[in-house]
């Protein structure tokens, strides 16, 4: 009885944890997506002070909302470690980690694996390309897996099988991404309880049809460019919240009618690299 009680306490704690990485060394020095290419072409530098301020703002929101924010040390020369969402996905105390597509991010894996080991997580490492919760999100008892730009179909399929093996029993719904501007699923799709936002132009025709049939709500070009889908939906018993960098009046009104409180946390510095609030977040 004591062992089971302890296990429940540990699992409860893990579910409320979020892994983040401070933007100490965050900058845009290479281009692996169009946003980064534009930043370099226009010679726009990251404002380090502002980036830290925006990252701290997100961290403080999580703490206020009752989450335990845990940190991995940043590594000089690996600026994208700040986007912890892409390192893997955590399920029942195990971290499932795949291969980054681009050589610039591959060295991050060593440090994330080390962190998970030191914090008593089991590790499942697959050889296929899979970029974590950037390309895999849970919605309506399904695993929505994005492939076609970063993660491969074989990668998300293998990870989904581990979810079933570990007792989650969810069905994989693969959706194909077709626009490099929306290189990860979480840049163009956001589950929100029974609802979801998505940007149709980022998906193949078949995938658009699937998401519409499931009840996802389409957004327009302007909302997509502001990275609205890369917001963070929170429902942890303290009221439903949605953290957004920017939101149109139309969607603010629509979400508030659904009982969702909007919390703004601007991410202009991270958007120079193509990321926003969700990219900076890994739920454990």
From TrEMBL:
One of its GO terms (biological process) is L-arginine deiminase pathway. It comes from Candidatus Giovannonibacteria bacterium RIFCSPLOWO2_01_FULL_45_34. Gene3D superfamilies: L-arginine/glycine Amidinotransferase, Chain A. Signal peptide: none annotated. This is Amidinotransferase. One of its GO terms (molecular function) is arginine deiminase activity.
